[in-house]
């Protein structure tokens, strides 16, 4: 198989699984019990099939990681393995590591495929992919809104979106999609779609306001403020004006169609101005107080799912750093957070020095996702994980990177490793030990509904 054929097939399959797991998720949920588990199955199947066909591709070159990255990631996996085997739930620790193996494999597959497609065609394809996904999602959203008007039936934050067992899983995708829809303002070949992007981004803001996605809105605004320091004055003014206009239009749409019209039709609205932390501060305090018992190696990967005496039954603490601290220990947390912070900072300074305008939306998307991971489970949920990996692979493509040619045996080893990890994950579906876990981690098991 030619590498170009493989690359376009992989990127097309990536778009297809997102459409199948979201837009058509409810229609396909009969395959498994719910849309969440469907997304996990699609991700596992996507990575496994991609690694299978990867073996048959000729003249493969994979990215050469820097020495610092190799040392950091290898040290993290060694520490994570030790933490897993010393934990109370070693089996589930290995399961979590298997999921990380799939994501690492997906990263290398994405980087290899993105490199051969070329930047111009890649940006065009990615923009229209995100635009198509947004249009389909928002059309369904508007239809549900119209139906609620016609039936004079009120709706809550989950009532207008389908394909997600929890609306927060869509908000996790939104923080990356909104950033990528800014491509027409940074890439010359897409300038004619500026107005289209303004309309779609405005609707995304309205949806975030309707779903009370405080963390998503805060993440997008915070990441944008950070980005302003690293971009030139003219680009800064252009981007700031665009963000302000879209946010203003989105707020207006929210006030009219979510607040005013429902109040006029039904006489009441389901509006709650939430000022509390939704229990997140309690979860984070629990992590800080309980990690002292297993300070260096943590309680083990995925162990927060069964943590005793935690204030809420969530399977993760809604903060990526707190999750690493609790499950992997202080050494792994300092190592991984320092490496990630240094990597993002080098990306930002590279944008400032090279004035690479076209890479701004990609960096903005990754930064927004990382900030949102401090308030949500964006590093836990299947589609959010995979999209973040894809955007990091895109970010690598924006900069100069060295590649090395690989022979057939490393490709075969990768496929066998992905196969073992996939089988390990699939074998845990509806596992009896997951019954006490009422909230999603690897699987949701159809135990709860929203």
The domain tally reads 1
Radius of gyration: 22 Å
Residue share in helix:
55-70%
How many DSSP H or I helices? Answer: 16
Total beta strands: 2
Q: What is the molecular shape?
A: globular
β content, as a range? Answer: under 5%
Mean pLDDT, all residues: 91
Secondary-structure element series: HHHEHHHHHHHHHHHHEH
Largest β sheet strand count, sense and barrel closure: 2 strands, antiparallel
Strand order, main sheet: write it out: 1-2
Cα distance spanning the termini: 45 Å
Low-confidence stretches: 446-450
- Content-based structural category: mainly alpha
Structural commentary:
This protein is 66% helix and 1% strand. It has 450 residues and is an all-alpha fold. It has one domain. The protein has a two-stranded antiparallel ribbon with strand order 1-2. Helix 6 crosses helix 8. The longest helix is centred in the middle third of the chain and has 34 residues, at 233-266. Mean pLDDT is 91; it is low at 446-450.
What can be said about this structure in brief?
This is O-antigen ligase-related domain-containing protein. The protein is mostly helical and 450 residues long. It has 16 helices and two strands.
């Amino acid at each position: 198989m030619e590498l170009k054929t493989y690359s376009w097939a992989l990127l097309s399959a990536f778009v297809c699984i997102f459409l199948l797991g979201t837009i058509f998720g409810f229609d396909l949920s009969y395959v498994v019990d719910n849309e969440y588990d469907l997304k996990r199955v699609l991700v596992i199947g996507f990575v496994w099939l991609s690694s299978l066909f990867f073996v048959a591709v000729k003249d493969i070159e994979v990215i050469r990681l820097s020495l610092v990255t190799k040392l950091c990631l290898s040290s993290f996996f060694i520490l994570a393995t030790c933490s897993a085997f010393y934990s109370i739930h070693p089996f589930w620790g290995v399961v979590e590591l298997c999921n990380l193996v799939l994501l690492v494999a997906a990263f290398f597959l994405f980087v290899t495929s993105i490199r051969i497609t070329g930047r111009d065609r890649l940006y065009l394809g990615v923009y229209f992919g995100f635009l198509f996904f947004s249009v389909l999602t928002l059309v369904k959203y508007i239809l549900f809104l119209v139906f609620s008007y016609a039936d004079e039936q009120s709706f809550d934050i989950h009532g207008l979106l389908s394909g997600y067992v929890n609306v927060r899983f869509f908000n996790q995708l939104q923080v990356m999609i909104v950033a990528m829809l800014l491509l027409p303002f940074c890439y010359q070949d897409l300038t004619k779609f500026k107005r289209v992007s303004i309309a779609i981004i405005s609707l995304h803001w309205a949806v975030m306001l309707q779903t009370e996605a405080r963390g998503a809105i805060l993440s997008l605004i915070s990441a944008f403020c950070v980005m302003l320091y690293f971009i030139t004055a003219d680009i800064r003014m252009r981007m700031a004006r665009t963000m302000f206009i879209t946010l203003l239009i989105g707020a207006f749409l929210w006030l009219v169609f979510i607040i005013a019209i429902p109040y006029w039709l039904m006489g009441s609205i389901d509006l709650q101005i939430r000022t509390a932390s939704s229990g997140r501060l309690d979860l984070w305090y629990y992590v800080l107080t309980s990690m002292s018992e297993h300070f260096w190696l943590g309680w083990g990967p995925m162990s927060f799912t069964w943590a005793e005496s935690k204030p809420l039954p969530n399977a993760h603490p809604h903060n990526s750093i707190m999750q690493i601290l609790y499950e992997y220990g202080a050494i792994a947390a300092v190592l991984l957070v320092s490496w990630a912070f240094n990597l993002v900072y080098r990306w930002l300074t590279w944008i400032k020095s090279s004035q690479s305008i076209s890479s701004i939306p990609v960096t903005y998307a990754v930064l927004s996702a990382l900030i949102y991971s401090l308030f949500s489970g964006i590093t836990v949920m299947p589609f959010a994980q995979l999209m973040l990996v894809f955007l990091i692979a895109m970010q690598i493509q924006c900069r100069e990177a060295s590649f090395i040619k690989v022979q057939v045996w490393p490709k075969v080893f990768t496929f066998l490793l992905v196969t073992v990890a996939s089988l390990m994950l699939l074998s845990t579906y509806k596992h009896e030990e997951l019954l006490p876990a009422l909230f999603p981690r690897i699987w949701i098991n159809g135990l709860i509904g929203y």
